[in-house]
Amino acid sequence: MARVTVRGLTKRFGERTVLDRLDLDIAPGEFVALLGHSGCGKSTLLRVLAGLDRDIDGEAHVDGTVSVAFQQPRLLPWRRVWRNIVLGLHKPEAGRELALKALDEVRLADHADKWPRTLSGGEAQRVSLARALVREPGLLLLDEPFAALDALTRLAMHRLVQDLWRVHQPSVLLVTHDVDEALRLAQRILVLADGRIVSEYEPGEHVRAKVLADLGVGESATA
Ligand SMILES: Nc1ncnc2c1ncn2[C@@H]1O[C@H](COP(=O)(O)OP(=O)(O)OP(=O)(O)O)[C@@H](O)[C@H]1O
């Protein structure tokens, strides 16, 4: 469980200001979803929180370790599944055991020795989740991890992520374009626009319509 504290975060790419004095707090163990139009800076914010981009103004502090799962699972094709999970962990003696435990948690215990290319999209995404969780992160950053999956697989992934969150209790920041996904999974929903968090909601009545209105899209559409 990590606490996230962001104050006055500004990120520029050349002349373009993508994040503009953004403030954000995430409490330890909280599950937060972040919505916003394509190109509004969601991935940029995640990269800053992951420590992948330090060329910023303002303050972005995470008091714990961070793992990221991306839209594409990004598995190394020349490593078997279990080796992908523990890659870079620096625990070679416990490596396989740790990987098997993590694979069991994402219900892929019998896939440890497979090659990534033999996995379905949903399976690869579960391996990616296992790889993120084996690091026991205080903060789990999920950058549209379900966007490329079919609807049924996505629903199964939602349940899995909820189960894993309850067991491991990391703080989570989920970037998504799907308002219903945010409503289903998150305790708090943030809308990013013009470089800042412009509104925040707890899931409840009428929130779907309010978020869609914030995003300038009508009811019945996704963002
Ligand atoms: N390395 C970079 N150099 C220049 N501009 C960049 C760089 N990375 C991102 N940008 C720009 O910053 C803006 C925000 O990008 P970002 O990827 O954070 O958006 P996003 O909200 O995650 O979009 P999407 O929902 O489409 O993934 C975009 O206009 C993008 O072109």
Automatic annotation (TrEMBL):
Gene3D superfamilies the UniProt entry points to: P-loop containing nucleotide triphosphate hydrolases (3.40.50.300)
Recorded superkingdom: Bacteria
Organism the protein comes from: Kibdelosporangium banguiense
Alphabetical UniProt keywords: ATP-binding, Cell membrane, Hydrolase, Membrane, Nucleotide-binding, Translocase, Transport
The name this protein goes by in its record: Sulfonate transport system ATP-binding protein
Pfam families: ABC_tran (PF00005)
Limits of the ABC transporter domain: 4-219
Gene Ontology MF annotations: ATP binding; hydrolase activity
InterPro entries linked to this entry: AAA+_ATPase, ABC_transporter-like_ATP-bd, ABC_transporter-like_CS, ABC_transporter_ATP-bind, P-loop_NTPase
EC number(s) given by UniProt: 3.6.3.-
